[in-house]
Amino acid sequence: MTTFFHPEQAHTTLFQSPAWHQAWHHSWRPILEQDPQLNAISVAGAYQTWASLKGIIPVCSLVPFGCQGPRLGSMRSEYWHQVAAIDSRPPSIEGWLQRALPYIKHQLLLPDVIFDSASHEAIRRFAAAHKLTLLERNESCAYAVDCQSHSFTTYLAQLGSSSRLKLFNRRKRLAQVGHVRVVNRWPDITGFIEQINGFHQSRWGRPCFTAPNRIFIEQLLTQLVADGHRVDLSTLIVDEQVVSVLLDLTVNKRTYNLQGGFLESRFNGISLGTLHFGYQIEKAFLDPDVLAYDFMAGDGKNSNYKEKLATLKTQLVDLALVKSRWLAACYRLNAQKNRLLD
């Protein structure tokens, strides 16, 4: 299902949108310019970052703009294809790799490429043609719900009984507790982020958005709306108490669930986070302009709820194009060591 996750015009994804890259440069470019271990290379659409391998050997990595890398903890950017273009005709991935090639000192890191996609194949060919060692690392799965092929009712019928209960059937029990509302809190970005941070602090022991990622998300949401996309600061309220929040961004017929948070164990037998997803997924099904509700990659704290709710999934892989022979040898030795331990 790589074509479903990777449309022909890859620059239409959230992560390759002008808004994403403008917000990324707004929040992270000052750090690139201040940190002597980081170096922005505009002509390559990437930055160099120095970090120590095993805390000993200094390694220089080239990373595309808009993506996180060693020493730069920006938000995860999935479905990587190529750098965003200013005009409506993005450069080919081969062209971008060719421009980046002279600036690869030790390795080029390409995070979250869709496995066996056209992009993956192009990267494989490029690595072979230029005698770069290609390593595939850190595999993960991205999940989505197809909202066009069938109805919400049919989707519910396909779920397991436990998932259907948590996602939809518990609405009746919640309505018995109090008055239930789901509202879009836009344009109260500040209040919404504070709400997410509070939920995350309670659940994970740390806030979700801190500077400069907080600067990034505030700029991203504002720019997306300015560009004609939709931002849903979805808030589930029971008797005037906020019990769950979901940050949903609809960009080019795809709704991305970027973040969320909820009160744990507030009501007996009701999973507020999953129930809130039910409202949002139903909303996506009812919107003829939405093709999919995208959970993206990542697992839950206690279970992989995305896999249980999704109808589609695809494999993502981090790629390293290694130019340095000694670094490639280090990676091979480490892989052999891990195989022996297994």
TrEMBL record:
Pfam families: Acetyltransf_6. It comes from the Bacteria. One of its GO terms (molecular function) is transferase activity. Keywords: Transferase. Residues 163-306 form the BioF2-like acetyltransferase domain. InterPro entries: Acyl_CoA_acyltransferase, BioF2-like_GNAT_dom. This is N-acetyltransferase, GNAT family.
